[in-house]
Structures are given as structure tokens and as C-alpha cells.
Amino acid sequence: VTESEQLGHWLLEAKGNTVNAFRWIFDVDDLYRSTIRNTDGYPVLFERDIAEGGYELHQIYQFDSSAQHVITSTARGNEPAQIRAFDLPEKGHDMISGLFALRQIEWAAKSPGDTVQIGLFMDEEWFELKMVHQGFEEVTIQGDSWPCIAIQPVVQTGRIWRKSDDLRVYIS
Asked: Is 102 helix (H, G, I), strand (E, B) or coil?
């Protein structure tokens, strides 16, 4: 049992790295960490450390869900951190706890085409992340298969995605 679990929290972590053979083209070394309450899945602390092709960003978000408030610390490269406070319109998630929250939805009670919405605080902005249920699919990676929920985020087109259905997420 970790200290975090003793305090009633779970630590969620996600990493993104460039495969070694391609590091010379564009090097990515990202770490996302979310400490959530194990009672309701809402975040207490979110940390984001990204290093992508020479760009560096370090963020720490301290959430107070009961007050619907978050304090942020954001530092780009070697610049000093900027501290800001935000009031949220409702309880919200960071990017990692938001993915965990999607796993907690009763997808079996929903039909393909149904939309769910999660309040998300990211890059010091509030978003209503909308996801469209696409059904259930078996996903096979390197010979291992998992039953997954297929969901399609409603994404903004033009910046990264050409069409609104260019991204599909699978949750086991």
C-alpha cells in the first residue's frame, strides 16, 4: 500500500516517448501524473512535464473540487513559473483523471451514437469534452486482444485534425 493510497488517493501516470530509432527526427519525452481521490475519481493534483523537440513545459495544478477551484503553476523552458487561480463552473478533471472518468461510465447502458460530456481543465482553460459512443470492439495489439469501448471525441478541426471523426479512442 502506497502513502497515496493510505491518504485515500490513487496515482495515475501516462508517458509519451519517441521510439529510439526516431529520436533524431523529433524527440518527445512527456510525463503526465494525476493524483485522484479514490472515492470519486476527481483530481487533487495534476503534473505535466513535456519535452518535445526542444520545447519544454512544466505544469502543476492543485484542485479543490469542493470549492470548484484550481491553482496552477506553469513554467515554459527556463522561464519562472506563473502562478494563477481559476474558479471552475463545476467539478472538473485534468486530462488523465478525465480518461479514468471515461472508464467509470456505464457504457453498456448507452447506445452507439449517444454522447457523454466531461468537464475538463487543460492548458488553463475549461472545456466540455464531448465523446460519442461508437460501440464495443475487440482490439488486438501485438497478438493480445482486449474488449474495448470505442469512443470518438468531438474534436476541433483545422489545427490537428482535418475531420471531426479523425480520432477514435479505445478504453479497456
From this structure: helix
